[in-house]
Amino acid sequence: MAVQTGLGEPRGPWFLSPELGPDGRPRWDVPGSGQEPSRRRRGGRLLAAAAVVALSTVSGAAAGGWVAGHDAPGPAAASAAPVPAELVTAARKTVPGVVSVLAGGASGSAATGSGFAIDNQQHIITNDHILAKGGGGAVTVEMPDGRRFAAEVVGREPGSDLAVLRVPAAAGLAPLPLAKPRTTRVGEPVLAVGSPLGLTGTVTAGIVSALDRQVRLGTNRRSAVQTDASINPGNSGGPLVNARGEVVGVNTAIATIDGNGSIGIGFAIPIDQVQQTADTIIGKGG
Description:
The protein has helices spanning about 35-40, 75-80, 85-95, 130-135, 270-285, and strands at about 50-55, 55-60, 100-105, 110-115, 125, 140, 150-155, 160-165, 190-195, 200-215, 220-225, 240, 245-255, 265-270. The protein is of the alpha+beta class. The strands form two sheets. Strands 9-10-11-14-13-12 form a six-stranded antiparallel barrel.
């Protein structure tokens, strides 16, 4: 019987993102990195079968995973079912509103994740565990076009694993639309958008596998949206959106067996919980 360790580090053929230096640290301090940022952007018991682990990428740890698409499409690829047009549209609308988040990294621990704007005041939703793993250090947000801004931490809520950041108005982030509470349905298609393994603007597709799944998020046991959309370290804080491009949750954790990374069971904080927590944080912090 497999032992569920929940180590959270993907194992397998080792892959080092071009966004990371030789030591595995995010290359945030090297604006060029061989090409301009904008050009790079364009190019206890949680389940009976698995343990839930957080999804931020900590500096110094190598990330594992397969890199797909190196070979030319074969006959099988040519006969694959077409991607639904609504998902293509949803991805096109969502990617420009998703940012990368770096916490810490100057001389201590560092962690990376994702986030997205929730209003026109440039408030950004992300996961609290990213900031926690960053050791409370400075937070930097990188826009989809490669611009970087120092972010203010408006507030944190470890109990729900949510945090709110704010960047200057010059960032010009457009907020993503939010799904209405309790409208998400099991079986509907969804997209997970973020920066897994440092690969910004990554989109993966799946369905809503279950609702009200009881898992440990932050310091509390809460209901989560379960999905089979592939999410990995670095996806933390990024949006899970439906086919209309509406955010239905914030990607937060995955289940693992023997610490082998994503096995197709991921969890997102439901958007109604996100909205409520964000409103409380923003109300207190401005």
